[in-house]
Amino acid sequence: QVRLKESGGGSVQAGGSLRLSCAASGYPQIMGWFRQAPGKEREGVASLDMLDGETKYVDSVKGRFTISKDNAKNSLYMEMNRLNPEDSASYYCAAVLTWRYGRSLSSYHYAYWGQGTQVTVSS
To answer: Whose CA is closest to 93, among 111, 80, 81?
Structure first.
């Protein structure tokens, strides 16, 4: 069983930055960040292997977002830079207790979810 709690969302102007945090109970193998805007499907943004630290990003955030971890704190982070209005969404932390799917960006491969945190970017 894994419990996840996100924090760090907020409102920012285009070009600004935000840092999301996710505190996890338990020891997931893979963790990721997903986002969902109103009327759109949930989208995988970035994922990370909690053992070796390897990462994966959706093309739209490469070079702007950085996913990272702190094993001592059992926490996941995402630094988001050069934000634009298209990044506005509810952001969710997710986790899975297997390496079966690798650093998947598909929401179907994740069993545990946080409650979400809102990110709003104004132009």
So the answer is: 111
Per the listing, tokens 């409650």 go with: 115
SS3 per residue for 13-54: ECCCCEEEEEEEECCCCEEEEEEECCCCCCEEEEEEECCCCC
Contacts of 108 (CB under 8 A, 6+ apart): none
State the number of CA atoms in the 13 A half-sphere of 81 facing the CB: 7
Residue 62, exposed/middle/buried by CB under 10 A (0-12, 13-18, 19+)? exposed
| Per-residue model confidence as pLDDT tens for the chain (123 residues) | 899 999 999 999 999 999 999 999 988 999 999 999 999 999 999 999 999 999 999 999 999 999 999 989 999 999 999 999 999 999 999 999 998 999 999 999 999 999 999 999 999
CB distance 48 to 110 below 8 Å: no
How far apart CA 111 and CA 18 sit, in angstroms, is: 26
